[in-house]
Design brief:
Layout lengths: L2 E5 L6 E5 H5 L39
Antiparallel strand pairs: 1-2
Protein name: MJ0042 family finger-like domain-containing protein
Amino acid sequence: METTIIFCEECGHKNVVPLEALEDKSKPIKCEGCLDILRIVKKDERNPEVKVKKSDKDDTLF
């Protein structure tokens, strides 16, 4: 069984997740540390640079 590692944004816990769980969209994947639902972000291979907004109110990118 192939796995991937996903870090929790809330608590920083390292979660080992089977790839099959990523394909099944019907169940959310929860952090093993804090039980928060993990947010999965796929990196765009064509544009690996990720731009993040400071807040929803601010359109300035850093």
